[in-house]
Structure formats: structure tokens, C-alpha cells
Amino acid sequence: MSSTSPVILILGSGANIGQHVARAFAAKGYKVALASRNSKEEESTAEQLKISSDLSDPHSVSGVFSKVKSSLGYPSVVIYNAGAATPNDAKHPLSLSLTDFSRDFNINTTSAFVAAQQAVLGFEQLSDTASKTFIYTGNILNTTTMAPLMDLGVGKSATAHIIQSAAQAYADRGFKYAIPTEILPIEKLTRYRFYYGDERKADGSPAYSAISGEAHAKLYLQLAEDKSQGPWQQTFVKDIGYKHFPTS
Question: How far is CA 182 from CA 179, 185, 186, 227, in A?
């Protein structure tokens, strides 16, 4: 049954970023839907829906959204947190098998594309006060290369392009809201928002295995609560927040 509480859907709900994000949004009154290959649907509660989903199959994504809609309602925030990488020979990256490349690309990009499509279809049905935010957990590989991680870089780069395109194209979608002033209310426009999250160290280098689920949760909640589109590429540092780093 649909709920009047806002709903967040997290695709790829791992123990670090996914669970920290889930707890942060739940604390703000969101109903939470978690979709991953290892989710146990029998553990679902009234506050948290768990959905088993293999994101290497892009056709499964629409089914995830259907389950969320029927149980909780349309999600106003969608987080795509899944990722996959098959390490390749650094000196022979084209030796990677087509099977591995295609599977990882489906997880990193194709299923994310379908999720963004489904998110927008839901945003169109939501009230004017809903967040309408889509966030993709990325990394530095859309701006640089790492020899053993070619297929991960391909996926992150492709999805970064999707996010940038969506942030620009949907800039005129949304609703007007008024900020009271002493003279007259000022009308603002809140739009559909699309972001690529990329945690860095303070010097701009990749966070690697030191990524902070708590820092992701803090940033993602802030982005969902903002009333306007910020920079689509959200490079950020733990305990600092958004920080622009020039690309080489």
C-alpha cells in the first residue's frame, strides 16, 4: 500500500554507502526501498522494503520500480549505487572477454539508464513538494584512466554523460514555489535533479577503499533537500562536502 511519507529507492544497497544512505533518509522520515542481488524480501518491514534484483539484467529494473510503487509509492529520490569491475591485464586491456565487459557495462550503465528513465516517469506523478532527485554513485574514472580497470572506467564515463545530459535537458522540468518576503513572494523553480557523486581525498585524488558511507549519506541528503540543481558532478571530500577539482 502506498504511503504518504516520501520514498527513497537505493539500487545497490551494500553495507557501506547503501546502508548509511538508507539510515540517513529513514531518520528524515523516508520510507526506504533497498534493491540488490542479496536482498532478502522476506525481511521487509512497513518502513523498509527489500527487493532481490540482479542489476546485470537491465530488464529487471522496471520490475523493481513496480514493486516500490505498489508497496510504498513513487520514489522521489533514487540512488543508483551499484557497480562492477573485472580487472584486466594492464598491458593488454582489450583481452577482457565480451561476457565480462557486457555484464559490467549493464550494471554500471545500462541498468542505471533504465533506472533514470523509471525515476523520471515517477517524478512526473509526484506532488510539487517532492524532491525528484536521481543520484549515481560514481568515482574519478570519468575523468582519468586506471590501466587495470578499463571496463569500470567505460561504465562510469558513459553514465556520467547520461547524468550530465539529463541535468541539462530536464532543467526546465519542475514546479514553482514561493519564498515569502516583506513585500511580495518571490517565485522560484525547483527542477528534476541529477547528480554524479565522486568522493575524493582533500588533494583531489581518489578515495579508493577509504570511501565513507557516512560522507555519501550526508551529501546525498543535502542534494535531495536542495531546491535547485547544483553542479551535476559532485566531487566531494569527507567532512568538507562539495569541492570542485579541475580536470586534467
Answer: 10, 8, 10, 21
**Residue 109 · residue 159 · CB < 8 Å:** yes
Q: 50, 27 in Cβ contact below 8 A?
A: no
Q: Bridge partners of 147? A: none
Q: Where are the alpha helices (DSSP H) in 57-211?
A: 61-71, 98-105, 111-123, 150-169
**Residue 243 among the catalytic residues:** no
* Rounded Cα–Cα distance for residues 233 and 198 (Å): 7
Which of 69, 132, 156, 238 is the catalytic position? 156
- Whole-model pTM? 0.92
Cell of 45: 518491514
Confidence of residue 190 (pLDDT cuts 50, 70, 90): low
Identify the H or E element spanning 197: strand 193-200
CB neighbours of 162 closer than 8 A, spacing ≥ 6? 109, 112, 113, 116
Express each pLDDT in 85-138 by its tens digit. Answer: 999 999 999 999 999 999 999 999 999 999 999 999 999 999 988 999 999 999
Cell 539529463 found at:
166
Residue 248 burial (C-beta neighbours within 10 Å; 0-12, 13-18, 19+):
exposed
What is the rounded (10 degree) CA torsion for 24, 217, 126, 226? 110
